[in-house]
Structures are given as C-alpha cells and as structure tokens.
Amino acid sequence: MLLDHPSAGLAAIRTQFGAIFVSLELSRSTWLVTSLSPGKGGKMSRHSVKAGDIADLLKLLAELKRKAQARTGESYAIITIQE
C-alpha cells in the first residue's frame, strides 16, 4: 500500500534475538564475517579471517557464542548465510 503522507505511528523493531546471525563474504584472500548477537542492542560486529583458515573461523564463532552467553546467561545457536 502506498501512502502519500508519512505515518506518525511507531515502528516495531525487534532487538531480542534467539540466535547469533552470521554473514560470510568469501574472497580468495580474506573472509569478511559480520555478526548480530543477542545482548548487543542490535549492533553488528565485523571481523575478518584469512581465506581458508577454517580453524580461525571456528575459533571466532566459538568466541561469539561465549560472549553472547556471558552477556545474556543463555546459549545460542549460530545461523549463517554466505553472500
């Protein structure tokens, strides 16, 4: 529906997440990892990992889980997408 005037109503934005959302942007030299974690107020984090370094990527994901649990007292699954 198109409106010809702006709405004065409130917009609902969900800031409580039930998982850690991770986006992977893969290149030949570097993998860019962005994440959105519970307890961070909707703030995205950016990290980079050397391309092909699976051990470092898994270490980063474990650290994201650890930090989210420290902030909230709960354990969260990680949901990933590749761009």
How would you explain this protein's 3D organization?
This protein has about 80 residues and is an alpha+beta fold. The chain has one domain (about 20-80). The protein contains 1 helix and 4 strands; from the N terminus they run E-E-E-H-E. The chain has one helix at about 55-70; strands at about 20-25, 30-35, 45-50, 75-80. A 4-stranded mixed β-sheet has the order 3-2-1-4, with helices on one face. The two termini are about 30 Å apart.
Explain the layout of strands and helices.
Layout: E1 19-26, E2 30-36, E3 44-50, H1 54-72, E4 77-82
Parallel strand pairs: 1-4
Antiparallel strand pairs: 1-2, 2-3
Tally the structural domains. 1
How many β-strand stretches? 4
Described by strand count, sense and barrel closure, the largest sheet is: 4 strands, mixed
How many DSSP H or I helices? 1
The whole-angstrom Rg is 16 Å
Name the overall outline: globular
The helix fraction, in percent, is 10-25%
Q: pLDDT below 50 for ≥5 consecutive residues: which ranges?
A: none
Distance between the termini: 30 Å
Classification by helices and strands: alpha+beta
Q: Which strand order do you get reading across the main beta sheet?
A: 3-2-1-4
Taken in chain order, the helices and strands follow as: EEEHE
Strand residue percentage: 25-35%
Mean pLDDT equals: 87
Quick synopsis:
The chain has one helix and four strands, in the order E-E-E-H-E. It is an alpha+beta fold.
Which key terms come to mind for this protein?
83 residues; alpha+beta; 4-stranded mixed β-sheet; 1 helix
